[in-house]
Amino acid sequence: MHYGEGVVGYTSTHDTDTWVGYFEDLPAEQRDCFRYNVGAEPDDPPEWAIIDEVWASDAILAVTTLQDLLGLGSEARFNEPGTLAGNWEWRVTRDALDDAIAEQLWELAGKHVR
Predict the structure, then answer these.
(1) Which contacts (CB < 8 Å, 24+ apart) does range 4-10 have?
(2) What is the pLDDT of residue 86?
(3) What is the share, in percent, of the chain residues with pLDDT greater than 90?
């Protein structure tokens, strides 16, 4: 990632699609290009590849959304600017959160000293 020092790096925000939703909408060639550039295998979850890239950047702060941590698609998008209906309705369920996600995030934090 090309986040420099003194900036905040995001995987996505409340006003953008989730990373998986964005990734799934890309043409196959662009998905392949992304995987190539981050060293991800075809079966690697793209959301963890981008989280790893943001965490590895020089950004002073690395941020991701819960939807990206959970690997959710467009159905979990928070907000679509310019629309009145369907915004801010997504909610996480308790059973969606598990120790495996926490452990993976903990490992990335240690790997990148975050």
Answers:
(1) 4/58, 4/59, 5/58, 5/59, 5/60, 6/60, 7/59, 7/60, 8/59, 8/60, 8/61, 8/62, 8/63, 9/54, 9/57, 9/59, 9/61, 9/62, 9/63, 10/54, 10/63, 10/64
(2) 87
(3) 91
